Predict the 3D structure of the following.
Amino acid sequence: MLKKLIPVLFILISSSNVCAQDKAEKALEIFSDKYPQEKVHLVFNKNSYIAGENLWFKSFVFEDYNPSTISTSLFVELYDNNKTLISKKLIPLIDGEGNGSFKLPDTLQEGIYYIRAYTTWMANFSEDFQALRQIALYNPLSPEGLTINDNAPWTAALFPESGTFVDGINTKFSVRLQSPGTTPSEWSGFVVEARNPDVKLTSFKSFDQNVGSFFLTPKYGTKYQLIAEDTKGNRQTVDFPEVMASGINLQVKTDNEAVKFCLKNKNITPGTVYKVIGTINNQVVFKARSSKILDQTYSIPTEQLVNGILQLAVFDEQENVVAQRLCFVQPDLLKIKRPALSALSLNETPRASNTFEIAQFSDNKAYTILVLDGKSESSEDENSLLSTLWLVGDITSKIYMPSQYFTKTHNSDALDALLISEKWKRFNWKMIMSGIYPVIRYQPQPYISYKGKVTVQGKPVSNTDMNLLFDNPGQGIKFYPVKTDANGFFTLKGLYFEDAIKFSYQLNDVKVPKEQVQVIFQPDYAFVPFKSSLPKSSYTVKQRTITEKPDKQIQRYVEAKKFQSIIGEKETLIEEVKLKVTRKDKTRELNEKLSSPLFKSINETVFDLVNDNNNASSSMNILQWLQGRVAGLTIESKMGSYSPKLRGSAVNIYLDEMVVDPSSISSISTSDIAMVKVIKGTFAGGSGGGNGAIAIYTKRGGTTGSLSDVSAPTKLKRITLNGFDKQEPFLVPAYNNDVFKTVSEDLRTTLYWNPYFSLQPNEKAKVQFFNNDDSKDFKVIIIGYDEKDYMPIYYNEIIK
């Protein structure tokens, strides 16, 4: 995938001493090329839970600002506040997106729980960049209950802009608050000289619960102090750093047109050469090196840049970093696509049907859609997809409500002050310039991979052919050949299946008694132990009294849980009221019927010629018909024969999952073909590399490659391999059916949850949901990504 960022490079070199001092740039190029960075965002179906419920989640994995192509699997873990692992899930990623669920046992005690999410590739870097989200879980039967910890002590810290505090230079300071509980909603501060504490030199009011800022012009030899205080009378005194007699101070201002900066200085020798490098997502977008750099103000146009954190670093002639500053590009011109809702048919009547349509954009395949009771909080209210993408994914410190910096009412001055208090944590200039890079211990595997070892009487069977036998319902038994290496090992890569698959195995050498053959499998992936300590929560627990009753919100959760149990008991009735099977569902059923486990891939495009002919009957050759229907697929014609290529590389053709020559396809009538799928990349049943394949399935059921003796597998040893974890279905009542008219009180918080609302060309994206018993308005959240314009699609509004 192309990078979303379009680098803009300015190079200003002094006329003298034009030596190639580019050690920093070369080090960064290596880091960017070899150590791309992934970040994870999690969306939950609601903001808090009760023991015994299901928790549903949607994950977005980005590489820089693009959906990641590095990882195809996501590891998700659930911990209690003692760091005890309660449950773990392995989730497949499709274009960087995945979804799953956790069953929260009835036995869980009330408290704060933690959900950790990471990829194999992310495990090579600091755990601080992995997703770690707190979840409040309630249980009225627990002896202790949760309460907000708003009386916890807080601390204030001072950060001069660019990290320098120089005599006579008017310097901007950021004041940052942190607390193990909740920081005060209102606080302020003032500055004094330590020897004259009764005279205020300047004062300020906080922007929010994270940060405030002010300016101060210091005098060399004077000691300064900051006094910060909240409305409850809590006060803290913080000493300023020492005032330097000489040095530089990098000062930055941002607006929608440009990022402007200058180097204020004191007692610096004229003609001293400095270099300034500007980077976004570890890519150089600006470079200046000059002996006159101290005398100018520079402007970096932002029209070709993307929203995100710009890191400016100042280097001296020995390439030491002497000042650094983070700022945000175009904070008041966020490049977001906001989908428009149309054909709204909303009804606040209890259990009424509600519908709306969503506008589609040019190149987005699906939406994540969540509809909540308008009074409810969402996980997006605290940390949104935008705040993960542009801030939290690269900043490791605790930020209160990071989503606030990317809402319609955001405060850009607050975001700028916040970034003054931070440093870029993805890499350290000094370390990478010294050649110290991350140690790569884990390589991502395509989907699920297993390594097998074949032995006979305990000795490895080297360089030997073996067949794996799968029972594919409706198609008989299919076998797939594998070959061991010199040590008896073989691998299965690119497996994509849920729950478990079972198969048998046999050596091709009939002289070896089958009872002497032993095959041992082990996953070629692993959950990585969590080494860090869990962060402090804004909640605390206190002992419940005998007469204490749950608050109204918890009572609603209890009733909603009972309601969901009733829906679960009516599964057979729910099946009767489901909407008619869509064309996509029929295609999915056909794919399940015809494709064996080794020929399933996340990265596949399926053409259903049974339920949707797609005008294939008008073509004489199915390969010719495929031309132009799949991105990256080309069909070359030579002497009447067609040869398929994916991204320029030749791929195999499989007929009923057996490799065939392209010339043999011309003799097959398109009317005899049931399904065609184009698989990109590695998949388990592939041979001859990982470029992909074209798999053609005939309406005869695929007898090619089947064994005549269908009882053969029962005589052989059986193997079971575990696949991706299957999520629980999200059940909702359909009140347009009489079955649900007698159910109990409906106090659901989540009225609609669809983590992958697939968009069909030329079809309207229509959403229908049913109200609970008391909602008067609805919180609608819609998330997507437009790969054509490299923009997130985001909507989070309350509609009435």
Observations:
- Confidence is low (pLDDT under 50) at residues 13-20, 572-583, 701-714.
